Amino acid sequence: MKTLELKAEKRQILGRKVKGLRKQGKIPAHVFGKGLKTVHLSVEGANFTKVYDQVGETGLVNLKVDSEIRPVLIRSIQNHPVTDLPLHIDFYQVNLKEKVKVNVPLEFVGESLVVEKKEGLLLTPLSEVEVEALPTDLPEAIKVDIAKLEHLDDTIQVKDLKVDRDKIEILTDPEEVVANIGELVTKEMEEVEAEIEAEKAEVVEEAAVEEKEEKEEKAEEKVEEKAEEGKVEAPPVEETSGQEDK
Known about the structure:
Elements: E1 4-10, H1 19-23, E2 26-33, E3 36-44, H2 45-55, E4 61-65, E5 68-79, E6 86-93, E7 100-109, H3 113-116, E8 121-123, E9 128-133, E10 142-145, E11 155-157, E12 169-170, E13 177-182, H4 187-230
């Protein structure tokens, strides 16, 4: 893959004042490396996004600072917790002649016949593996062909991954499972789902009872209100003797 270039500017603005840079569409960053002094930089947000979408954290980037070109990897990005926009970037300057250790994402390709037939479920416990290689030999991703998973319990392990072993060493435990076919619905899952459905039914039933009681209370209140409104004070009854005076 062609090495992309990204322009950066040295910055003197540090600390909380970098908010002003972000308002201008720039992202604060710094570049560091083995035996190198850390340099504070800023890059245009739009340009960085375009580059990052293509290289991720494993592709080499030629970071242009003034007239100097620095070969770097995007080591980490700090994102805003709400907008997810990048707030800060760490660039790691590499020596092209020295190997580096990075996490490389796994890309699952192909289709499993047993999954297509809905006889099994594809499980992918790993999404990346750690590798060691020269910066120029780092793969953007490692492809995992799941078409070979044809039966229940078929498994692909780290040791089965196809990479150029002469250039790339995979450091992740070779016995770790990358992908496998599990039962579509296990007995344990059925029990859990039954419990969940029972809990939902109980909640619905309780809500219905509460709603009924609330309606009954309101109805009783209305009856009492109408009864109070309909009450008229009766006139006093005069007492009379059993016989009239003649």
